């Protein structure tokens, strides 16, 4: 159960109990194999007077918005605001609410919004980041330049109360929320419910545009988190069909760099590069955090991205795991050394897990993680051409300038800090 209270001086601090996910540990020998299957895997507030001022970021709303700041909002006023357009305002007069602001992509979206001059209201948990490792001060530091609001996206009432206490109107909501575990219940709680809460709360306070960070893999939904995302996508699209001018942009990126960097340090240490089948079962056009953040922020104002589903990859050609491995060995100046694992091993493991779930229902997340691993081992993160039913690199748009090769070089030099996958290790 979560609770919420609000600060009167424009700051909210909320905390909700951490989701306790299943954690599976392995010996160091198996770590490289496991890295192939790693997936990504809260709120009470107190009156502001009891908190040191230095913990708060000043609200930097424009003059016009300051006038709105303390206006009490009613739903009818909010609807009126929703029908008016924000697109003819300059960024400094546009209030952007971002949820999932502390995630791998969310942090970069906050930075990009700020650098383009928007007023950013970033919702965060008091303990943010992987396994809640960042305290409030660290979170404020990470989100410097934004008006940080500690609230609970999983609780609509708390979220609305937080926004009401802030007294601001919202023009645009950007969601970079995602379940940190990828577990079944957590996916529905975050990728669907919490994301929907941000839509409802944003709408109530005037939002007329919603930018959703989704994933390209939802085009072939076999996993629970994909179904949860798709359900929200469908509801968002329906919302865009109304006649009050509400619009959306759904961004479906291919693979992130962090998802492809898990073997870099191991290969550097002399281990083989592990891949499934012949290493050509899947391909992707990886995109960096800053490039994706830039694309997402383009969606705030670009007219040509209104009411669209936007698959997006990084620059350059699509890369298979084999090509990624070859690239890595070339950068290291080493002779390629591959370990090819039959994909059937995954099917066997999933079969065993599915059987065990029937006896031990509490293992449902473990079985789901197995399916997630299988999915990413065999499915390309490219546009699925409806005409051919095949993945198409040509039909997958590229954006940005950062390449996987530069990323590998950086990891070889500096390690994987900041590129951790999440809260779960699965097999
Ligand atoms: N990995 C890939 O290659 C890839 C490719 C394409 C698309 N995607 C999609 O991109 C999206 C974002 O990924 P990401 O890596 O940036 O995600 P992430 O780093 O796991 O960040 C998730 C965000 O959601 C918040 N969140 C999670 N559970 C929460 C809870 N119970 N209460 C409040 N906030 C919660 C987190 O807050 P805290 O910091 O407080 O935990 C964080 O801000 C996902 O939808 C993913 O499916 C990923």
UniProtKB/TrEMBL annotation:
Main location: plastid
Catalytic activity, as annotated: protochlorophyllide a + NADP(+) = 3,8-divinyl protochlorophyllide a + NADPH + H(+)
InterPro entries according to UniProt: DVR-like, NAD(P)-bd_dom, NAD(P)-bd_dom_sf
Record GO biological process: chlorophyll biosynthetic process
Keyword Mitochondrion carried by entry: no
Localization (cell): Plastid, Chloroplast
Superkingdom of the organism of origin: Eukaryota
EC number, as in UniProt: 1.3.1.75
NAD(P)-binding domain sequence ranges: 100-301
Pathway field: Porphyrin-containing compound metabolism; chlorophyll biosynthesis
Keywords on record: Chlorophyll biosynthesis, Chloroplast, NADP, Oxidoreductase, Plastid, Transit peptide
Transmembrane intervals: none
GO-annotated cellular components: chloroplast
Any one GO molecular function term: 3,8-divinyl protochlorophyllide a 8-vinyl-reductase (NADPH) activity
Identification of the protein by name: Divinyl chlorophyllide a 8-vinyl-reductase, chloroplastic
Origin species: Senna tora
């Amino acid at each position: 159960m979560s609770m919420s209270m609000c600060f009167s001086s424009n700051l909210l601090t909320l905390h909700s109990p951490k989701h306790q996910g299943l954690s599976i540990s392995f010996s160091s020998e198996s770590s490289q194999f496991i890295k192939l299957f790693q997936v990504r895997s809260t709120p009470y507030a107190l009156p502001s007077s009891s908190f040191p001022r230095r913990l708060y970021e000043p609200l930097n709303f424009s003059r016009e918005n300051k006038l709105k700041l303390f206006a009490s909002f009613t739903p009818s006023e909010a609807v009126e605001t929703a029908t008016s357009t924000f697109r003819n305002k300059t960024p400094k007069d546009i209030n952007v609410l971002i949820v999932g602001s502390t995630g791998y992509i969310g942090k970069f979206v906050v930075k990009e919004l700020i650098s383009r001059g928007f007023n950013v209201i970033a919702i965060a948990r008091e303990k943010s980041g992987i396994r809640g490792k960042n305290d409030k001060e660290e979170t404020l530091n990470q989100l410097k330049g934004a008006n940080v609001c500690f609230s609970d996206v999983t609780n609509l009432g708390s979220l609305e109360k937080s926004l009401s206490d802030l007294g601001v109107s919202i023009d645009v909501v950007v969601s970079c929320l995602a379940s940190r575990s990828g577990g079944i219940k957590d996916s529905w709680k975050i990728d669907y419910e919490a994301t929907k809460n941000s839509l409802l709360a944003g709408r109530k306070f005037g939002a007329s545009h919603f930018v959703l960070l989704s994933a390209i893999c939802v085009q072939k939904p076999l996993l629970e988190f994909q179904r949860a995302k798709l359900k929200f996508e469908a509801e968002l699209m329906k919302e865009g069909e109304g006649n009050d001018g509400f619009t959306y942009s759904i961004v479906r990126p291919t693979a992130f760099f962090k998802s492809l960097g898990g073997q870099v340090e191991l290969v550097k240490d002399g281990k083989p590069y592990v891949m499934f089948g012949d290493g050509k079962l899947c391909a992707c056009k990886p995109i960096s955090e800053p490039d994706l953040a830039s694309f997402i922020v383009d969606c705030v104002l670009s007219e040509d991205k209104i009411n669209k589903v936007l698959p997006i990859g990084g620059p350059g050609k699509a890369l298979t795991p084999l090509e990624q491995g070859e690239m890595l060995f070339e950068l290291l100046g080493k002779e390629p050394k591959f370990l090819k694992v039959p994909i059937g091993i995954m099917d066997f493991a999933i079969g065993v897990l599915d059987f065990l779930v029937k006896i031990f229902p509490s293992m449902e997340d473990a079985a789901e993680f197995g399916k997630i691993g299988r999915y990413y081992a065999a499915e390309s993160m490219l546009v699925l051409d409806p005409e051919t039913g095949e993945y198409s690199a040509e039909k997958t748009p590229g954006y940005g300038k950062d390449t996987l090769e530069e990323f590998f070089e950086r990891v070889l030099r500096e390690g994987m800090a900041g590129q951790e996958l999440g809260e779960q290790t699965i097999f």
